[in-house]
Amino acid sequence: MARVAVVTGGTRGIGQAISVALKKKGFRVAANYGGNDTAARQFQADTGIPVYKWDVSDYAACEKGVASVTRELGAIDVLVNNAGITRDGMLHRMTKENWDAVMSTNLDSVFNMSRLVIEGMRNRKYGRIVNISSINGRKGQMGQANYSAAKAALLGFTKAVAQENAARGVTVNVIAPGYIGTEMVAAMPKDVLDTKVLPLIPVGRLGTVEEIARCVTFLADEEAGFITGACLDANGGQYMA
Ligand code: NDP
Q: Whole-model pTM above 0.90?
């Protein structure tokens, strides 16, 4: 039977492309989202992928969400922790609220979701967890102390959990995308994009959501069992760790 994959934030942007790519590879996909019902309904109508609304920063909500997916699609074999937000600002002006929002949505969510699927994966001796970090978690970014901290933490989490579960057939990896042509980046003024962003990318263009989805399907594959605790940088050469 087809393996079941859950993609958090799987209805828009990079997550949408990940959900579609996993479906094309034969997975039964559940796409989670947080609040944008209109986008989620449209996504479901376009792709036929079922959508599930819950807040990934809320452990109890994740418990209910994971239970629904398991009941309706089956036991979860692949978890893609993709949901994320930014609340940018220099540290000397950053509010505690914006710190907490970014830490809970980008980092607590990864604990919540991974904790809820890991025992089942261990018991079944198979699993794939893919965490979506960011180039800014690798190199730090001015104006993003909260986001850089949360995304860097995913690297430590990934390595620890990869070690804990390697002998149980569960791999845990992280992808660190660079600038991707999502709505967020496309909304930047063209001159800022042309003068401040593109010159920093040796490949000379933004990445595409499909290119990040390709990284996920690679790591989510049964044949990727020897890759665990790894960070896959997909940033057009902008940062070489
Ligand atoms: P988008 O803002 O386009 O989409 C975010 C998705 O996450 C949406 O589906 C959204 O749901 C969901 N989401 C947000 N908060 C929650 C929550 N609390 N609970 C459940 N779902 C939630 O993001 P991107 O596609 O741009 O980014 C995806 C990931 O990639 C993020 O982790 C981001 O940090 C990372 N990334 C993005 C880069 C880029 O250039 N875009 C570069 C590097 C990393 P809803 O539709 O309901 O709001």
A: yes
